[in-house]
Amino acid sequence: MDRRFGNLFNGTLSYSFMQAKNTGSDPDTYIDFGSRVINQLSGGTQPPPQAILPTDFSRPHTLAAAASLAFPNNWQEGSAVGSIFENFGVYATFRYTSGTPYTRCNNTSSDQDRLSGDNCDREFPEGINQSRLPTYKQLDMRFTKGFGLAGLDVTAYLDARNILNLKNIIQVFDATGDVVNSQEAEAEFAANQDEWVSEADGNGVSIDEDKTIDLSFDGVADPRTGCSGWVTVDGNPGSPNCIYMIRTEERFGNGDHMFDAAEQRRASDAEYNLIRGIHNFTGDPRRMRLGLEINF
Fold first, then answer.
1. Is residue 159 located within the same domain as residue 195?
2. Are 132 and 200 contained in the same domain?
3. Is the C or the N end of the chain the one with fewer CB within 10 Å?
4. How many Å apart are CA 180 and CA 8, to the nearest integer?
5. Which residue range forms the structural domain that includes residue 216?
6. What's the structural domain count of the chain?
């Protein structure tokens, strides 16, 4: 639906409904996923799907709008309102659409790291693409103001993307259907801690029952000097590992070179959140850009 009011406002509103189903989202769907699923009756490979199912890109509902409000040169000339709004424009686009479907995975260790769009292991609790991400919504706006400067036509603009700073979830963990997975985070910390403790123990470093690693090397002024003979768990020279561990304690701890469990947790979580933080599961936040356009 298009609508224009006078010479200032013009708007468009559209709605579409789409039901995208097939026996696969692409030619490799069965090879990448279905052929790996075990048939519960036969115990063999699951045969190709015989019925159409929602595809990965199916979005049933999409509502979109675009509008512009533009005041021409010399609008209401001579008035205070005219001097403010002449050569001023507002342009907006809005989109509200259904989230894309994905397949839930069983809450097993092999599927803890799977994200929507990934393939589950050989078992899953529901049919293909029976879950769906939350709706996606975004409002973008652009404000412009034209004026003359030294004989030039200048337009200043503010370009605002996602001006309402709406949070759009673009992927989730298949095992939890959420943007967090505490089981995976705990497993990551346990693996990191075991790696630190094992390597320190192999180098004769003191470790107490709480898994606090003593990196002070008997209180030397610079503990890095104690790293010269450090080796990895494989027995290879690994002085950088020792220095990295010292720096990690200084960065995420109090700098006393006693790398305790709480400091290990902070260091592990920092690494984990780099690739599993909320910014990896949501769309872009509000972004603002100012600029000038000069016409000769």
1. no
2. no
3. C
4. 47
5. 183-276
6. 2
Number of other residues whose CB lies within 10 A of the CB of residue 111: 21
d(Cα 222, Cα 224) in Å, to the nearest integer? 5
Q: Which residues pair with 292 in a beta bridge?
A: 156
Evaluate if pTM is beyond 0.85.
no
> Is residue 27 located within the same domain as residue 160?
yes
- H-assigned helices in the chain: 29-32, 80-85, 182-202, 239-252, 261-276
Residues 171 and 220 in one domain: no
Is residue 70 within 8 A of residue 12, CB to CB? The reply is: no
pLDDT tens digits in sequence order for the chain, 296 residues long: 999 988 899 999 999 999 888 877 777 766 666 566 665 666 666 666 667 888 888 999 999 999 999 998 888 888 888 888 889 999 999 999 999 999 888 777 667 788 887 767 656 677 778 899 999 999 999 999 988 887 788 999 999 999 999 999 999 998 889 999 999 999 999 999 999 999 999 999 999 999 999 999 988 999 999 999 999 989 899 999 999 999 999 999 999 999 999 999 999 999 999 999 999 999 999 999 999 988 87
Sign of CA dihedral 274, 277, 278, 282: positive
| C-beta separation of 252 from 266 below 8 A | yes
Domain match, 194 and 50 both: no
- Mark whether 192 and 248 lie in a shared domain: yes
The answer on 19 and 161 residing in a single domain is yes
Residues 6+ apart with CB under 8 A from 116: 100, 102, 131, 133, 171, 172, 173, 174
**Spatial CA neighbour of 223 closest among 180, 194, 253, 198:** 253
Amino acid letter, 116: S
**Cα angle for residues 231, 233, 236 (degrees, 5° grid):** 45
